[in-house]
Amino acid sequence: MKKFKFSMQSILNVNNTKKEVCEAELAEAQFALRKEEEKLSGIETQIKGAMDPAKAKDKCTSGFFLQREKYLRILKGQRRNQILRIQQAQTKTDSCMTRLKDATIEVKRMEKALEREFSAWELEFRRDEQKINDEIGNVRAFFNSREAV
To answer: What per-residue confidence (pLDDT) applies to 56?
Structure first.
């Protein structure tokens, strides 16, 4: 009996590789998303710090308030831009998750095909083995009957 060889092994290997690539892309996208969220957190901290009334207590000049307002506008613009970057990173993460899900489904399909093909091969192997055992039994029975005569 020939050795078991999955006929679609190369396709399974390619699908496994695609799955690994998708996992790496997802990890990278999640890391980028966390980094963008940390940047937003830093901007929020800067805004809160600029609006701190304790800082304005000592410097009650109109020039200070004008500078603070300009600075706050700049920070709020940065916050809007950062929110857009976070949304883009979230979209990329979601698309990576979808691709990973699809790749995982393909790998599972191929693994099920492998199991079905192996089961069919194993059934054929057991039938051939039983056939050989039956033939051996028949030959022994023939020789035992000849010896009895």
So the answer is: 65
